[in-house]
Structures are given as C-alpha cells and as structure tokens.
Amino acid sequence: MVSPVNTLMGVREWLMLLTLSLLWGGSFFFIGVAVLELQPLTIVALRLGIAASVLWAIVFFMKLFPVVDLKLLGAFLCMGILNNVIPFTLIVWGQTQIASGVASILNASTPIFTVVVAGVVLSDERATLLKLLGVIIGFLGVVMVLGIPNANDENSFLAQLAIIAAALSYAFAGVYGRRFKAMSIHPIITAAGQVTASFFVILPICMLVDTGAEFDRISVEVWLAIAGLAVFSTAIAYVLYFRILESSGATNLLLVTLLIPVSAIFLGWLFLDEKLAMEHFFGMGLIALGLSVVDGRIWMRKN
Description:
globular, 76% helix, single chain
C-alpha cells in the first residue's frame, strides 16, 4: 500500500521540478568533461560514492537517525537497482553504440511508461486520456528540440532497446519509490539509502569491467566535474526527486525527463554560446503545452 498524493502540482512542486531538470540537465556538462579521462562505469561509481557520502553527512547533520531493518534495506536495494544500476548501465552501454541525441529522445519516453505503469499499479495515479495525450505532445516536443540523428550502425537496434529498457526501469523506480512515504522515511534518508545501495552494487561491476584508473594523473578540471556531478546532479538532485515523488507522485515527477533536454540546451546557450534555432523554440512550446495538458488545471477550467 502507498499513501495518496496530490496529483495536481502547485507552484512549489513546479519550481522543484524545474530545478531538478536544471541539475540533471547540467550533468551533461560534467559528464562531457569527465569522459575525457575516465571510463564510464568509473564515473558512475565515483558519482554514486561521493554523492552517498554527501547525503549521509546531511543526514547526520540534521540528526535524522533512521531505524534500520531488513525491510528498509531491501527497499533501498530494490530502488537503487531500478533507479540507478540498471538505467545507468544500459544508458552507458547504449551510448557507446548510438548518438547521445537518439539516447536522449528514447530516454524522454519515460513519462509514457510511467503513466502506464502507475495507472496499473497505483490507485491514485490512474491513467487518463488527457494525461497520456499531454505526455505524447511533450515527447514530440523533445523530438523536435533534439532532432533525429542518424543511427544506422549495425548495433543500433539493440542499443536503442537498451535505452528504452532504461526508461522503463526509471518508470518502475518512480512507482516503487512511492512506498517510502508510506514507511514514513524522510526523503533525504531515502536518497542516501538508495544511492548507497547503488554504489555497493555498481562498484564490483566497475572493478570487473573498467581497467584501473590512474587517479593521480586526473586533472583538476575532471575532479571538479566529478564533484559537480556527484554533489549537484546526484545528491541534491535526489533530495528534490524524493520530495516531488512524496508530494506529487511518480507520473508528475518523471515529467522531468521532458524538461532535461530543454535545460541542457538552455545551459549550452547561456554558458557555451550555442545558438538556438526556430525548431528549438517550437519544440519547447510543444513541451510546455504537453506539461500543461498533463497538469490539467487549465484544461479542466475550460471544460
């Protein structure tokens, strides 16, 4: 059983969602720097390990001492596998075969899966025609913003399936994570627990797959990128993630995957002097329209 949520987001929830999209959109900057000197799973392991340390420091500073039992540890492990280990691994492998633009478009299908999964599993997040229509409109906006890169490599089909599987895993994670509210677990503890569990799962995989990194030769820029990725795009981002999940539900939370490409393009325009074309503005308009349809309040007033 899970506690009911308010599926209509208020100003506070929308601001948190926009902030989360900026934090996760900014991860493209940090990863872009880090991959110049580090292998993918090493980046993931460092990201999760540092983020877990930061989150537990916050937990102890706030004196939030959880009562740990096997049920809670099992929930952290399941959430960590669904929300980090499976999608991170699939996306990293998928992007070795296909362009990042294709991967981003496929990852933006997450809200579609979430509407379906939450509609079946959660009684207070039943799928509606209006909500599904909004997600599809937003997804078309993402496609327009990013375009459709050429992906004709012989391994591209399996890679695309991997990204879709990652999106499905995110959808199940959003639904599964609702149980932490019913267990009365503080969002910061939930974030710390699932990131820690993910780290202990991914670490041995990293040690088996990646060759040893020469950490003494890593540049300051890469360490700063790893720190930004861990602290801002993981630790702080997951605190917001679980707060939104607790108050507004899985379907609303995973709308962030529609906003991430917009955030990434906006940050590129702001800091890297990248240019915006007309299709970017049309795409962002479609995403805004789709989000307003999912939110539903404007359309319900008109009806």
